Amino acid sequence: VQLVQSGAEVKKPGESLRISCEGSGYIFTNYWIGWVRQMPGKGLEWMGIIYPGDSDTRYSPSFQGQVTISADESLSTAYLQWSSLKASDSAMYYCARHAKTTDPADYWGQGNLVTVSS
Amino acid sequence: QSVLTQPPSVSGAPGQRVTISCTGSSSNIGAEYDVHWYQQLPETAPKLLIFGNSNRPSGVPDRFSGSKSGTSASLAITGLQAEDEADYFCQSYDDSLSGWVFGGGTKLTVL
Questions:
Q1: For B39-66, what is each residue's pLDDT tens digit?
Q2: Looking at residue A11, what is its pLDDT?
Q3: pLDDT tops 90 at residue A50
Q4: Binding-face residues of A in 32-51 toward B, CB within 8 A
Q5: I want to staple B4 with a disulfide (CB 3.0 to 4.6 A). Which of A88, A99, B37, B103 is the partner?
Q6: Concatenated DSSP letters for B72-104?
């Protein structure tokens, strides 16, 4: 099982961005993919999840309306996107796999470092 | 401010035992949701250390153990080794948020 995330990104405030998480070694549509933010020197924050099998998507209230989570089952890839980045979006973003909504994440991606600076 | 409360730091000498607490509420740990623990080594992604309160994934040494009671959980590490120096996070599910909640993380220093 592997989750491989797209590379580091450097963007300006107001720009849009989509980062990706490609799953392999398992049936992609049978597991939830969650996104977790880690700001520099801080803890882990749950952003939301998607079930690629039926695109059921749920967001943390803290991130609802701020980001969009999607998935393309034909590419075994989940996405996290922003329409207008802010400097406060600078963080490491991890994707992680779990079997049920209450289950732990048993596999994690390597992380996407997003830097937003003018 | 994290939904689950952990001490910011703990420390111990090699060979010693340390514990890390994780305190929640009636909408998460107290609602009978399992607690899971992750280890995050510097500059790496978190790794699942304990799942379902007290179970170890394959490959995790039995020096690591977990327990849960009421609205709290604990991670114990015995026979501390230098390689255990990392950040540790607890995680559960919360009914109010309908999603995961994490502790703020505990930095373990091996003296």
A1: 999 999 999 999 999 999 999 999 999 9
A2: 98
A3: yes
A4: 34, 36, 42-46, 48-49
A5: B103
A6: EEEEEE-S--GGG-EEEEEEEEETTTTEEEEB-
Nearest partner of B89 among A58, A49, A38, judged by Cα: A38
Q: Return the percent helix, strand and coil in chain B, to nearest 5.
A: 5, 50, 45
From chain B, pick out residues whose CB is under 8 angstroms from the CB of A104: 34, 36, 38, 48, 51-52, 91
Span A54-63, average pLDDT: 95
Query: Tokens 């998935």, residue?
Result: A71
Token reading at A76 = 């075994």
Q: What letter does residue A25 receive in the DSSP assignment?
A: S
Asked if the Cβ–Cβ distance from A94 to B97 is below 8 Å, we say no
**Average pLDDT value for residue range A58-70:** 97
* Distance to chain B for A101, nearest Cα, Å: 7
Q: Is the pLDDT of residue A27 over 90?
A: yes
Query: B24 — contact with chain A (CB < 8 Å)?
Result: no
Average pLDDT over residues A11-39: 97
Question: What is the distance of C-alpha A89 from the center of its chain?
Answer: 13
Tokens found for residue A30: 């049978």
Comparing CA positions, the residue from A5, A19, A23, A6 lying closest to residue A97 is A23
